Fold this sequence. Notes:
The chain is mainly β. The chain folds into two domains: 7-43, no CATH class; 47-88, no CATH class. It contains one helix and seven strands. The strands form two sheets. Strands 4, 5, 6 and 7 form a four-stranded antiparallel β-sheet that branches. A three-stranded antiparallel β-sheet has the order 2-1-3, with helices on one face. A hairpin with a 2-residue loop joins strand 4 (47-57) and strand 5. The two termini are 35 Å apart.
Amino acid sequence: MTTRKHAALIHAWADGAEIQIRCCGDDWDDCHPEWAEDCEYRIKPKTRTVKCKLYHIEGVVGIWVQGTQGIPGNAKLIDKEWREVEIEL
């Protein structure tokens, strides 16, 4: 017995997971999957919104996420206000 190409994702979808599709190298999109053999599927990544500020030090840009250790002493902040960004977990 051969396992269907997308079997694990089909089971995850049946259990309530959100599925995304990518065909021909395009971006990932939310979908109601048809399980086409020539497309890629994945479980939609979970995201979280964090607040951060950009800084630079010796020509390199860094990201300081709110709630983490501060920036190096000789770094200069680029942002004056916190910006919200969404990250994949």
